[in-house]
Each structure stands twice: as structure tokens, then as C-alpha cells.
Design a protein that fits this description.
It contains 20 helices and no strands. It has 440 residues and is mainly alpha-helical. It is globular, with a radius of gyration of 21 Å.
């Protein structure tokens, strides 16, 4: 876990490395479980619909309504986290969402499904932006894309691990009197609740409180973070709601919205599409095949974030990843050959997921203080509405054309908007100032 420090300060270098080893693996585990509980409904889709009789439209709405609850409570959750600390609030988030995720096993009609998916979004609101904000309190700008990239490995790893795991758990039909899909939801939901309890005792809010750093290391890391916060504050300072008046923040929200429109099919529709192309159902074989694109994403995430940090060209790296991702995603519309689908997935998934931790260096190098807590939350919450609209857009496009694959093309076109905005986005003064101080 290479995390070089600014200049030649060996104390700061040690502090950053210790922080990375202490915090990031656990944060990865938290994100892995969050995304697994968010998208496991895609793995159990066929079995779930078989037993409940839910229509495609009802499934699409239930899958997407999660993001309505998520969007409504994202900003308040992040402001509470900033006030009371990450340790308490992230632990609360994990325990409540884990229990609600397990309760989705009771979704025997569409309204119960809608309510529980909405409540799941409410419970999980604040985890992702909260950890992104938490990382700005621990890692200087020069290391932040790498730290964010390592944390973001929880997303592809949730599918690398979760795809075969969910496929394997689906074989336990009747265990404890549960249907196969119910067993998946219970096991994966309760795992998150247990890790949430551990998080309360494991995490530490800021460097000044870290007993596992020496006094010199605590002072060096805290001073470096404070220095960068002051540099950002010289360009612009935001109130909690004032961030929404900033055109740059609006651009960040639109970029993230396009990301979510493009990536939602990976979890909600790709498993069933590949299973249908192979003439069967989602099982261990399909799960193992679907792990390949996410393994590619994990590798690309690491390579892209390290490269972007070293060359300070985060915007262009994110742009090219999006371009390749949307082209491959669009190709999914034109084939039902399972091997061609796997190849397309192995390009689309890394392109549209590895670009996201690279992108996050842009807002975190620009926003500071309360503006960072609320701005990051607004970007995630409003941007995540793309994940709500994505299943609805796909279902609508498929029905209009009468082709169950045309929706992938429509979603890819919308996702391409992220590349268009990225290429037109100018570098902020704060980002230039941070780059100059790193080079000095």
C-alpha cells in the first residue's frame, strides 16, 4: 500500500503509511458490504420474481427507489457525521442498514418491497460521502486519489466476492425454512450489522486522536491537512447550502449523475442478461463469470488512481476511462453471445467505475470545511438519483422499442454526458495551488 508523502518529511511519510494500513482495509470492508447489500437484489432477481410474481416494472421501481431515500437523507447524514464524528455515525449507519437489508426477505408484495428498499436507502445514506469526507481528514491531496482508489476497491471487490458468494448462497434453498433468495439477503445483511458494531471500537475520527500514531506523527499529519484546508479556503468558502450556487459543484453533480445512470445496469440487469444468454439462471457459474469484470475494475482502479496522482491529470484520466466505458456498455445492446458480453463487461465496468475515484479528487481538492461535508453529500445524493432513473429509463426504452437490449444503448448515451462535462471543466485555482506546493 504505497502512499508517498509530500517532500522529504519522514515523519509525515510514516504517519500517512500507518494511517493507510490502519484505516483503508477496514473502510474497504465497509464499502464492500454496503454495495453488496445494495445490489444483491440483482443477483436474486430471477428467484425473487419467481416466488413473488413481481413484474419487471415493479422490480425496476423497487430497485431504484433505494436511491430516493438515499438522496433525501445524504446531506443531513453527512452534516451529522461532521458534528459527532465518523466513528459513531458510520457504525450507526452500518448496523441499521444491515438489519433492514436482511428484512427485505419479507418482501412478498410490491409495496413491502418498495418500503423496505426506500428505508434501506435512508439507513445507508451518508456512508459513501461520509467516508469520502473522512478521507480528506486523514490523507493530503497528493495521496488522496490513491487513498480514495484503495477505498473504492470495495465496489469491485463486492462484486468479485459477491457474485460467486451470492450464486453459492442461492443453493441453500430451504435452509432455516428460508427460500434461496431470502437466505442470501439474511446472511449478507447480518454481516454488515456485525461489522458496524466493530467499527464503533475500531475507527478514529481524526489524526490528533490516533493512539497508534506517535505524537510527532500526529502533529505532522494534522498540520499538513490543516495547511491544505487553508489553501482551499482562500479560493472559496461555502455554507452548507451555498455549494448549490457554485457552477463547479453543479458540474460535479451532473458528472456523478451520468456515472450512476451508466453503472446501475451492471448490478441490476447484467446478471440476469448473462444468465439468459447462457440459457439458464443466475448460479455459481454465472457468478464466477461476473466476477471477472469487477476483478478488471479493481486492477484498473489501482492503476488509474496512482497514475493520476503522479501526473496530476485526474480530469483527463477520468475522461478517457468514461469514453471506453460507455462504448463498451453500448456494445451490450448488440449481442447476446455470452463470451462477447463478458468481453464488453470487462471493458465497460472498469471504464465507468475506475473513473469515479479519479473523479473524486476534483471536488475534494476544491471544497473545504462545511462546504466539503455538504458538497460531497450533495454530489453523491443528487448524483445518485441517476441510479433511480436508470432502471426506469431502461425499462421504458425497452418497452417503447420492443427490444429488451435497447435500454443499454440509451443509458450509455446518457452516461457519455460525464465525458462531455469533464473535457470542458477548467482546473480550479485551489487545485493548481496544491499541485504547485506538491512540486515545490
Amino acid at each position: 500500500m504505497t502512499m508517498e508523502a509530500t517532500g522529504d518529511d519522514p515523519v509525515l511519510t510514516r504517519a500517512i503509511k500507518k494511517s493507510a494500513w490502519r484505516l483503508i482495509p477496514f473502510l474497504v470492508l465497509m464499502l464492500l458490504l454496503a454495495f453488496l447489500d445494495r445490489v444483491n437484489i440483482g443477483f436474486v432477481k430471477l428467484a425473487f420474481q419467481r416466488d413473488t410474481g413481481l413484474s419487471e416494472a415493479a422490480y425496476a421501481f423497487g430497485a431504484g427507489v433505494f436511491f430516493i431515500g438515499y438522496a433525501l437523507f445524504e446531506v443531513p447524514s453527512n452534516l451529522v457525521l461532521r458534528r459527532f464524528g465518523a466513528r459513531v455515525w458510520l457504525a450507526r449507519i452500518m448496523v441499521t442498514w444491515g438489519l433492514i437489508s436482511a428484512a427485505v426477505m419479507y418482501s412478498y408484495n410490491e409495496w413491502v418491497f418498495y418500503i423496505l428498499r426506500f428505508l434501506l436507502g435512508v439507513a445507508e445514506a451518508g456512508l459513501y460521502p461520509g467516508i469520502l469526507y473522512f478521507l480528506t481528514c486523514w490523507f493530503p491531496a497528493k495521496q488522496r486519489a490513491r487513498a480514495t482508489g484503495l477505498f473504492y476497491l470495495g465496489v469491485p471487490l463486492s462484486l468479485v466476492v459477491g457474485s460467486p458468494l451470492s450464486g453459492w448462497l442461492l443453493q441453500f434453498d430451504g435452509v432455516l425454512g428460508l427460500k434461496d433468495w431470502q437466505f442470501v439477503l439474511v446472511v449478507e445483511g447480518l454481516a454488515a450489522a456485525v461489522v458496524g458494531v466493530i467499527a464503533y471500537f475500531y475507527l478514529c475520527d481524526r489524526p490528533a486522536d490516533a493512539s497508534w500514531l506517535s505524537p510527532d506523527e500526529r502533529r505532522a499529519l494534522a498540520a499538513e491537512i490543516e495547511r491544505e484546508e487553508q489553501l482551499k479556503a482562500r479560493e472559496v468558502q461555502h455554507s452548507a447550502l451555498g455549494v448549490l450556487k457554485d457552477p463547479r459543484v453543479i458540474a460535479f453533480i451532473l458528472i456523478y449523475f451520468c456515472f450512476q445512470v451508466g453503472t446501475s445496469p451492471f448490478s441490476f440487469f447484467f446478471p440476469s442478461k448473462l444468465a439468459s444468454a447462457m440459457g439458464g439462471k443466475v448460479d455459481l457459474t454465472v457468478g464466477l463469470l461476473l466476477a471477472l469484470p469487477w476483478l478488471c475494475s479493481a486492477i484498473m482502479t489501482r492503476l488509474a488512481t496512482v497514475y493520476a496522482d503522479r501526473h496530476n491529470n485526474h480530469r483527463l484520466v477520468a475522461f478517457w476511462l468514461v469514453v471506453f466505458g460507455v462504448l463498451a456498455s453500448a456494445a451490450v445492446s448488440f449481442t447476446n453471445n455470452p463470451w462477447l458480453l463478458i468481453i464488453a463487461f470487462c471493458i465497460a465496468v472498469p471504464g465507468l467505475t475506475a473513473s469515479q475515484p479519479v473523479f473524486w479528487s476534483l471536488p475534494t481538492n476544491y471544497l473545504s470545511g462545511v462546504g466539503a461535508a455538504s458538497g460531497i453529500a450533495f454530489i453523491v445524493s443528487l448524483g445518485n438519483l441517476g441510479a433511480f432513473f436508470s432502471p426506469q429509463i431502461k425499462t421504458w426504452a425497452d418497452q417503447i422499442v420492443g427490444n429488451s437490449s435497447i435500454g443499454y444503448l440509451v443509458l450509455s448515451i446518457i452516461a457519455a454526458g460525464a465525458a462531455a462535462i469533464l473535457i470542458g471543466l477548467k482546473e480550479s485555482k485551489a487545485s493548481r495551488a496544491l499541485a504547485q506546493t506538491r512540486a515545490a
